[in-house]
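Hello again,

I reread your note about wanting to compare the complex against the isolated chains. To keep things tidy I'm splitting this into two emails, and this first one only covers the full assembly. Below are the input lines as submitted, including protein chains and any nucleic acid or small-molecule components. They are followed by the predicted structure of everything together. The single-chain runs will come separately.
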Amino acid sequence: MAFDETKHDYKVIGTRPVRPDGIDKVTGRALYGADLSAPGMLTAAILRSPHAHAKIVKIDTSKAEAMAGVKAVVTSRDFGLPEDQDLRDTQDNCMARDKVLYDGHAVAAVAAINAQVAKAALKAIEVEYEKLPHVIDVDDAMKGDAPLVLEGRALETVPEGWSQNVTNYCEFGHGDLDDGFARADLIVERSFKTGATHQGYIEPHACLASMGPDGRGELWCCTQGQYMVREVCAGIMEIEASQLKVTPSEIGGGFGGKTTVFIEPVALALSRKAGRPVKLVMTREEVFRASGPTIHSSTDVKIGMTKDGTITAARADLRYSGGCYPNGTCEMGAQAAFAPYDLKAVRTYGWNALTNRPKEISYRAPGAPTAIYAVESVVDEMCQKLGLDPVDVRLKNAADKGTKSSYGVTFEDIGLKATLEAAKAHPHYTAPLGPNQGRGLSCGFWFNFGGNASVTLSVNTDGTVNVTEGNPDIGGSRASISMIAAEELGIGYDRVRTIVADTTSIGHSDTTDGSRVTFTVGLATIKAARDAKTKMCARAAALWGIDPEAVEWVDGAAQPSGPNAGKFPPMSLAEIAAVSFQTGGPIAGHHESNADGAGVSFGVHLCDIEVDPETGASKVVRYTVFQDAGKAIHPDYVEGQLQGGAVQGIGWALNEEYIYGEDGILQNPGFLDYRVPVASDLPPIDTVILEVPNPGHPYGVRGVGETSIVPPLAAIANAMSRGAGVRLTQLPMSPPRVLSALMAKG
Amino acid sequence: MRYATPKTAAEAASLLMEDAARVLAGGTDLLVQMKSGRLAPETIVDIKHLPGLRDITREDGGFRIGAAVSGAEMGEHTDLVAAWPGVVEGVNLIGSTQVQGRATMAGNLCNGSPAADGVPAQIAAGAVARLEGPEGTRDVPVAEIPTGPGKTSLKRGEFVTSIFLPARPERSGDAYLRFIPRTEMDIAVAGAAVNLVLGADGTVAEARVALGAVAPTAMEVPEAGAALTGSKLEDPAIEAMVDAVRAACKPIDDKRGTVEFRTHVAGVLAKRAARIAFARAGGQA
Ligand SMILES: Cc1cc2nc3c(=O)[nH]c(=O)nc-3n(C[C@H](O)[C@H](O)[C@H](O)COP(=O)(O)OP(=O)(O)OC[C@H]3O[C@@H](n4cnc5c(N)ncnc54)[C@H](O)[C@@H]3O)c2cc1C
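Full-complex prediction:
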């Protein structure tokens, strides 16, 4: 049978069924990273550096090893030296070699019969450090005389003249900037700084590792990607990937923060040495000090505009630091910065510099929020100066189908104009404001990823279906995948059960990141379901004695495709499944591919804040998110992504930041002083989902998970400027910073 | 580690004479400090089983609040809330609903935090703590209990059994406000309590202003109270009070707030608390 490439008359897609993992999660039956135990299991703990930067002169573990109940102690001496540089960085981040590069960097670990013994053993480990000068701020780190975090790590693209801390450099754009600026009536140039933020997932990193004497291992852990964990850990343990089985647990949030490893190799090394299973769970303090927050940034933006609001030229210089190892996040920032605009002359430059902070890992749209914050702040200031409506100016310059983006690609169908128009037409845009209130707006953008996925769809003899896939569910994806399978097969949502498999049960799947799962795994599920339908049609055709090509799948059943094909009553999926053992055996569809065509996603956020003029405290009083989802499979979970991203962005804008002392020590490794918003800090976050189909997907799906964290930073800064009359260029806009700006204004 | 539940004050006092002994009331400070490794007591003396410690009783027209009474219980006591709304709102700001079920006003005081939300309004109220110890019972003004961050004037073996809030004259009111960067689950960056008694003519007859989180201990600022006396909170009186408050501030500069910020905001909070207390006392501007 043949399939239409696109589909529109949905029965399941677009409804809001209960998620399959919901009851387990609210009753406590769901198993998270720390919930698994094994016979003979040991408890591990990690000793961490109290210094921001120091040479490790000596580590003496003999006293700890001699303690009763201590079964293994490891340091960097227990690991090899991977050839691959990225792998070596990951390993060194898990266990420091020669130098500690940040406060909290692991230097040794113990496995003991219980947590008390493990803790006591850490105290018995003697580490001699030779303190080195440290550097925390990105602008300081780029200077020629800055303390060097690592040497010889600059890529060839980095121009001469910078500190060796500068490891990455990139350039994007097109057109003649000088000519563009010459044509502008107004040029505004501003510099911005943003603090490093943490994903703030509720579940700390946790794992249970077991290495056998035969060199085969098992790992149960909380991760966004079991195949990534397998590849990295097998590399570090110097075993073949197939010898390590990784099972992902339920996951209590990730937001990008669980797309690498921090403790798993340590648990594996301890288990290998002790010959027993080892459980290792980070404390919240360890999560803040030694997992991966986002970059902090320093950005200059220069934009030229004519009086009617046309942008004539735009430039951004983005200096990012993702901590103590090289990373390319500045490239994503430099590509995203002007993505919402159709520009004739645009240039972005990105740098990454090393600092004595923990190794950055992805956080929801990595690199984009800070870049777009700077750009959207300047655009807003220009609207204020020229007396222009902020939506109109954005519409006038908005990227559209056919626009050559600032990062080189030419956009296909995109939903930016539709979201801007929806924002303008929404009652929120014109609602009256109270005293000390201001309204701000910002666009947002994310690329969205496709990539590798494997899906197997088994048809059970009882007429139900199992979907087996390889992507940890961090946003309700099992519900969405089940819905897609049900839609394609023409059966009920309650007939499908989707599970996330371990690394030995299905082929490779890339990590759950880049807003890729509903798009990519969904696409593979559609194809796997179509494969199963083809097979079921063939079974029916064989029973009927007609040509398989003469059978089609309609409403959950095989039927002859026309009067000439023969006259047989339709055979439902359940009927075909029930006799499958007699017609050739079990039936399954599957699909494995590396998907292209993940459509980019744009959003617009509108926000009202109220600023207390006497204390600088600000309160978000109304918030509306407009975002293009392509096609919302399960609208609840799309709304959840839009709301969650907005909330994380609000935290970033107003209070969240890594605060360091003069000594380079992190001052706020806990939720008391690392202030994520609590429920009472927030208004209801309204959402408006737009559906501008992605031509790269049969249902038009676009990823939605990341775009939503991008606009809040500027939306709030813009609202602050309009409500309180002060434009802050540093995040977070904490009350002391706002108050001092208000007092300076007088 | 030993956990003891003494049934008499004398027994509790003698347990507290032991090395590294600690009182346990609600445990919302103590257990957190033990978990973080900051404290490792050998003996934990749970005072919740002592007779009378969980009662709020009327005495001389005022209220005696047992040292094991929780914040939630104070908030549910209608007469207490009517007489001392500011004291109760300070205690009720502590933590969350869950924390309110355990946390005590006495524990808030004895923990010795300069930022304790329950303390400034007690000081402004002229509250008096009753202590029990190896040498017997003594009454000490709440203002004299904290002596520095984490430190109190309690002697070895001594503990608080109750806190007394005096009788209220007609036309009186109190209020407490704190500043935190978010709406709950935070530590005060500055706090201010104001307790006012109005005269028959509607002007302030007596005023006490106390501050939190802007000095090593919560403290009364007598000059601030004096600035309000005789006024109906007209602008010059408020300005003089705010100036006195800011002059008294000696805050630290840390991740939670700068010196300038804490000092400025303490004045703002005192002004706002004064207006609330004035209105509660039935004052009309
Ligand atoms: C999540 C959370 C949020 C919090 N929020 C706030 C807040 O907003 N504002 C605030 O001020 N505090 C806050 N706290 C701190 C704490 O809840 C309060 O200080 C509380 O009032 C302590 O009372 P407790 O009865 O739990 O004291 P405990 O923890 O039992 O004791 C505190 C200390 O005082 C000693 N002690 C207790 N009772 C006596 C006594 N009768 N005599 C002598 N010594 C005694 C103990 O030995 C201990 O050292 C918070 C705590 C948590 C965990």
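For quick reference: DSSP finds eleven helices and 14 strands in chain B.

B.
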